[in-house]
Write a structure and sequence with these properties.
The chain is mainly beta and 335 residues long. Helices cover 7% and strands 56% of the residues. It contains three helices and 19 strands. The strands form three sheets. It has a twelve-stranded antiparallel beta barrel. A three-stranded antiparallel beta sheet has the order 3-2-18, with no helix packed on it. Strands 11-14-15 form a three-stranded antiparallel beta sheet. The chain is elongated and about 75 Å long. The two termini are 18 Å apart.
Length: 335
């Protein structure tokens, strides 16, 4: 059977790092790849409309919220079945409402409510893939890939500049030597760094994918780690570890097309952020998600996918808006 190009993509955005594979397809599940170019358009939508304080849901009278939509345009090239590169260009659309305090050195703090949309180019990523183990037989197959790359500060990070400036003003208003969280000036569950399209930093991206199949059944696992650096503004997002994947089955398996269903689980651990070198205990979380993914391929060039994950548990630090669910889908074409 002829399978399409498998484009493994690492994506990094400031609201929440995306999945290691921006596109889930039958060819990914079987771990098979072919040489040539591929183009992928993938969408991820996450509404942050649940308010939590230290892992417990709270119900404020006028809650803040954030609806995050990220569209990924990915150009990939596989030199061979063992080596490939991909460039990811994300378009970020953040709709939000937040009520917060604004500080000044010459006047009392002012309460304000901000509602609108932040749109722009996100941080682009360049990723390399190397297959370190391949075993493909008639009835089964195993493929292990290692991935590594860099995320570039191409997104607008003006909101980070403002958040750091507010931290500096708030710190200056405190008595000298007073210990405090660097983000304690904010009363909102949606901070400016949650909305910012860009991070202002060069970050390392590392991953491992393991794909196995036996007859109509398959199993894939993706491990990814984002190593953050301090951005131009003095804000540093916390490092992040994500482990995802699960078992699946090919419901339809034909020379012309395939259709598969997968049970998909996701573990996400986000470390605490830092502002001007000081750790914020109001950031970071550990979450578990579970949901279905449907993959479809047609011929040797076209593939599509759609999936959803729902939170099983979210243990966050401080006061945050956390995901209600995660939706993603995409379509790929091999040239």
């Amino acid at each position: 059977m002829k399978f399409i190009l498998s484009v493994l993509v690492l994506v990094s955005v400031t609201v929440e790092a995306c999945d290691l594979c921006a596109v889930y397809r039958a060819a990914d599940a079987r771990g098979e790849t072919g040489a040539g170019f591929g183009l992928t358009v993938a969408e991820q939508y996450i509404p942050y409309r649940t308010s939590q304080f230290n892992g417990e849901e709270v119900h404020p009278a006028n809650p803040d919220w954030l609806d995050s939509s990220i569209t990924h345009f990915v150009l990939g090239y596989n030199v061979s079945s063992r080596f490939g590169v991909s460039l990811n260009v994300p378009l970020v659309v953040q709709q939000f409402k937040r009520t917060d305090l604004r500080y000044s050195l010459t006047a009392p703090p002012v309460v304000f409510t901000e509602q609108g949309t932040e749109t722009g180019l996100g941080d682009m990523s360049l990723i390399g893939r190397l297959a370190v183990f391949q075993k493909m037989e008639m009835e089964y197959g195993i493929v292990v890939n290692v991935l590594g790359g860099v995320k570039f500060p191409t997104g607008n990070d003006e909101r980070l500049d403002d958040e750091v400036e507010q931290t500096e003003i708030f710190t200056a208003l405190l008595p000298p030597g007073t210990p405090h969280d660097p983000l304690s000036h904010s009363i909102s569950s949606v901070h400016q760094h949650n909305i910012s399209p860009g991070s202002g930093s060069y970050d390392g991206i590392f991953g491992l994918t393991m794909n196995g199949n036996w007859n109509r059944c398959f199993l894939n696992v993706q491990i990814q780690y984002y190593l953050r650096s301090e951005g131009r503004s003095g804000f540093k997002y916390g490092n992040e570890l994500m482990v995802s994947g699960g078992p699946g089955i090919f419901v339809l398996l034909d020379k012309a097309y395939t259709l598969s269903l997968q049970a998909f689980a996701l573990y996400d651990n986000m470390a605490e952020d830092e502002v001007l070198g000081v750790t914020s205990t109001a950031t970071g979380l550990t979450a578990w998600y579970l949901g279905p993914v449907v993959n479809f391929t047609w011929g040797g060039r076209l593939s599509a996918n759609v999936g959803a994950e729902f939170p099983l548990s979210i243990d966050n630090n401080g006061y945050q808006s956390v995901p209600d669910y995660r939706l993603h889908g995409g379509i790929s074409w091999r040239f």
